[in-house]
Structure formats: C-alpha cells, structure tokens
Task: structure prediction
Amino acid sequence: MAGFSPEWLALREPADHAARNPQLLAAVGAFFAAKPSLSVLDLGCGAGANLRGSYAVLPDRQHWTLVDHDADLLAVARERLVGWADEAREQGEELVLAKDGKTITVDTRQVDLDKDLDWVLGWRPDLVTAAALFDLTSKRWIERFVAALASQKLPLYTVLTYDGRENWKPAHRSDARMLAAFKHHQHLDKGFGPAAGPEACDIMAEAFRKSGFAVSTADSAWLLDEGHRDLRDALARGITDAVRETGQVEPAAIAAWLEARQAAASARIGHQDLWARPV
Result:
C-alpha cells in the first residue's frame, strides 16, 4: 500500500478530529462503559492520530496495538504519542502513557494487512478500529475482513472513510471533470487490488449487515475554511497529482483548477464513520 508522509498526517489531524462524528464516538464509548479495561487493535495506524481521537470515551485502562506497514510511521507514532501524553515511559518494547487520568499501554507492529490479516485478527482484541483506511482497500478485501471479524464477533469502529462528496466554493467550471477523474484514480490498486474508493463504507456496511451485525454510519465531512488554508492547498495539490496520472483532464484545465482551489473560500470533503457490533 502506498504510504503517507508524517507531514501530511500531521496537517490533516486537527481536521480529522473536528470531523469525527461525536454521536457515533459516544455510542462506541457507551458500548464499552462497563468494562474496566479495553484492548484495541488500530489498523493502518499512521502516526497514531486515531488513538488520540478515540481514547477519551474509552475505559480508564486501555491497551492499543498500533499496526502499519510503514516502520518509519510506527516510529513517528511512538514519538508523537510521547509528546502528546501527560506522562510517558517505556516498559520493555511498550509505551505506558498517562493522559487525562487514563493509562494507555501501546505496542507497535509492522504488518502487511493484505498477507497477514487473519494472523492480526487472531490477537482477539475487544475492539478493532481504523481511520481513513478502507477506501484504499478492495471490495474483495473488505468482504474478507468483515467475514473474519464476524467469525470472532469482533466489533469495528472506523472513521473518515472518503465517500466521494466534494463541494468547493466558489464553484469552478472544471469541478465535475476533476472529481470524476479523481474518483477514477481512487479506484486504482492501492495494494489490496482494485480499490473500493468512495464506495468502501457502503460495501462494508452491507457486508456487516449480511453477517448479522448492527451497523450505524454517520457523516464526518471535513469543513475546511480559511483556518485550514495549508491543508486545503495540500489537498488540492494531491488531487491534481492524481488527476494528472489518469490523463482524463488536459494539463491547462488542471492548472487552472488548482490555481482556483488554492484561493478557494472553503471546501467540504465527504467522509463517513461506521460502528458495527455483533448482536
């Protein structure tokens, strides 16, 4: 799977936290409220932002296993978690963090989720979670993943799956063409076969329902205004790079769209959160 830079992940983290759907997050917390401790498996953890966005509603004692294919990002995650915590110490290969009265133990593991999925889920956590991951995976992989969770009755909480909705203001004459080409790029192989792209959340929800899980989905769109100019700029440049690779939009139109988007007043970028649990 293609990696993401620590700089991009740091840039998007505040927007991710602001976009995470609060009602769905509260429902996850309520589900585990009676447990004194919780083990969490975070897939495609990147720099650890999902832990920082979820920990507050979970029990006072948490053990997180952070999984990513990129060993450098796992090192960044450890570093950023140490800086984020109120207190941090090493305990063997694990980190022990204190944050807002909670004790969070963290271990990191480099894993290929395409090849080693069954082995990873065999660790049998109380909760599986991920952020901005499943639009990169394929329909076949998602269905395999859901079947593996269902066989062990493991709940999933996943956030910020891209859903293909984009609304930039002011509008530009090339918006529709650029979005169509970008969606085409989103369906290219990202390491798991042809990617599900914007359809990922719907595919996953349907697979969980067929497996007898209760499923809730909720909006978690980015709302990017003047306070997010650096993120908007980086996002627009990333979109134009992807569109160039498709060859579906002529270079002059791409350049004009990028110039307009770098001066945009705002952008709403669609994402979905999903909470699936056995019943």
Notes: The chain has ten helices and ten strands. The two ends are 33 Å apart (CA to CA). Residues 237 and 258 are 7 Å apart (CA to CA). The longest strand covers residues 156-169.
